[in-house]
Amino acid sequence: MESEQMNYARTALLLAAMTALFLSVGWLIGGAGGALIALVFAIGTNAFAYWNSDKLVLKMHNAEPVTRASAPEFHDLIAELSRKAGLPMPRVYLINDPQPNAFATGRSPENAAVAATTGLLRRLSREELAGVMAHELAHIRNRDTLIMTIAATVAGAISMLAQFGLFFGGSRGRGGAGLIGAIAAALLAPFAAMLIQMLISRTREYSADRLGGAICGNPLWLAAALDKISQPAVHTEMASAERNPATAHMFIVNPLSGHRMDSLFATHPSPANRIAALKQQAAEMGRDGVLGDNAQRATRTQRRWGTPATRRRGPWS
Q1: Longest alpha-carbon distance in the chain
Q2: In what order do the strands lie in the sheet containing 91-95?
Q3: Distance CA 260, CA 248 (A)
Q4: What's the rounded Cα separation, in Å, for the pair 225 and 279?
Q5: How many domains does the chain have?
Q6: pLDDT digit string (tens) for the chain, length 317 residues
Q7: Reduced 3-state DSSP string for the chain
């Protein structure tokens, strides 16, 4: 696990880069005055993102909180994995969406949350789901979630600032680029969001895969899950992700369907490479071979979670 000091330094560098981008957009729109306004906006956005970005991202994807009463098996699985990872129990959310996917958020392990789509719960066996959620808990333990969540929030704010400048036409004096600068900022802002995704190091996915394999006890469970959900995620559009592409890097697999230009910029390593790394880890742990009989049987039957009564009253019904 990376040192806490390294994560704090990385967070500071990311926030500095975002602030510089804010200033650049502000100058293009309104010159020195626009840059000053953008600086104030950047300070406020960074402060807001640190304290509230997790809530904002959960709201972006219409995530609903669940308890042991509404989703007992899923809730108990997260509790079991959290104990194995040495983490406090995170808040648990479900997203009513057919695409199989999941993410983690929160500025610290004490304020963390994990979210999974209903499509993920319907498609995976218990063992495969354990692998996916262990991966998300690994992000929390590695403290990746702070940077990932802030990046998503600030990227959206940059786009909003650029659109705001275009709406008002930009400054025609004071050193700014005027209307041309406002148009340029508005056109380039989506690419800035893509760049932020790419700046979130893709090696973190490998690190979370490896730690997740150790937490759940069998890296092959996560490998099987990645193999099962990678293609459906590409072919099943997730409306909330398409509306908020700057959050794509937070998910275990890229949630963008490919209908937008954003998907040209890979935010995740190749599933094949991740699966190969997990198989190598399994061999190192003496877990060579295929999934056990119970996992295979659960995979074949595509077991759903909870009793029929639980599913009816759950937030995904």
Answers
A1: 72
A2: 63-65, 91-95, 113-117, 102-105
A3: 12
A4: 13
A5: 1
A6: 445 566 566 666 766 777 777 777 777 777 777 778 777 877 787 788 788 888 999 999 999 999 999 999 999 999 999 999 999 999 999 999 999 999 999 989 999 999 999 999 999 999 999 999 999 999 999 988 887 777 766 777 777 776 676 665 555 444 445 566 667 666 776 576 566 656 666 668 898 999 999 999 999 999 999 999 998 887 899 999 999 887 888 899 989 876 444 344 566 888 999 999 999 999 999 986 655 444 444 444 344 444 333 343 343 33
A7: CCCHHHHHHHHHHHHHHHHHHHHHHHHHHHHHHHHHHHHHHHHHHHHHHHHHHHHHHHHHCCEEECCCCCCHHHHHHHHHHHHHHCCCCCEEEEECCCCCCEEEECCCHHHCEEEEEHHHHHHCCHHHHHHHHHHHHHHHHCCHHHHHHHHHHHHHHHHHHHHHHHHHCCCCCCCCCHHHHHHHHHHHHHHHHHHHHHHCCCHHHHHHHHHHHHHHCCHHHHHHHHHHHHHHHHHCCCHHHHHCHHHHHHECCCCCCCCCHHHHCCCCCCHHHHHHHHHHHHHHCCCCCCCCHHHHHHHHHCCCCCCHHHHHHCCCC
Q: Which amino acid would we find at residue 317?
A: S
Tokens of 138: 């690994």
**What residue has token string 């973190």?**
204
Per the structure block, which two tokens stand in for 128?
């495969």
CA distance 37 to 25: 11
**Domain range spanning residue 239?**
4-313
Calpha distance 61→94 (Å, rounded)? 10
pTM exceeding the 0.85 threshold for the entire prediction? no
Q: Which residues are catalytic?
A: 136
